[in-house]
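It is worth pausing here to work through a concrete case rather than discussing structure prediction in the abstract. The textbook approach is simple: state the sequence, then state the predicted structure, then interpret. We follow exactly that order.
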Amino acid sequence: MRALSCMLTTAALACFCPCELSAAVSEAANSARNAAQEYGSAVRNCDLVWALDNMYPPLRRTLADRLASRDPKQEASNARRIMGIERESDEAARVRMQQADRALVEQYRKMGEQMKAQGFVVERYSVGTPYSEYVVAHSTGMVRPVLKDRTGATRADALQADADRSRIVVLPITLVVRVPAASGRMQRMERRSYIYAIRDEVVSGVNMRGTELNRWYFVDSNTQVNTLRTYFPNLPLDIAVPPTGDRLLP
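Step two, the predicted structure:
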């Protein structure tokens, strides 16, 4: 079930009824939706490594670091490093993070293989109309909703051209899958959820995030807003998100 949950929320994208969202969306938000369409083949093939490769890089590093911190062989060394007892050279840090990332890739690869072995099948996939959109200016501490809600009444003013900024778009999804039930028979299920599409649009100085400017990356809805706020401190806690839920299908 852990692999199923990961696939449903990390790599899976799908449809959302456009009649439930009447507001116009920006060109950038439509760009995010178009970029998310590429997830289709990855979803159908249970390719979690592809999904990982398109995850927002700072979050990927966080997940890799968490995975490495749970390695019993590294616990003592990690504790000494965190406490400042043991200093780590830049080269040692680079090697450590490379090893952690390889371990994360292997974990995602095994989850995808497990899902295939269990008979997980994606029947339908599409991406819905962007539900909300936010522009975050890091250096000035500004965040403004570009598409606040379904009314479309709130639009963002232009930010300063030289301000560090990123864009976050909430994309509704629905996924129809066939999964093995406890009885051994295949069960059809629909999940309505969402993902965050994120791109860094302006970065002054050295880009410590490791992102490509204007490239869309994706974060699943299992990621809490507080986690996103570690990368975007002024992102609101009350981000507008679409209704979610699961239902069994005949």
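Step three, interpretation. The first strand starts at residue 121 and ends at 127. The chain has eight helices and seven strands.
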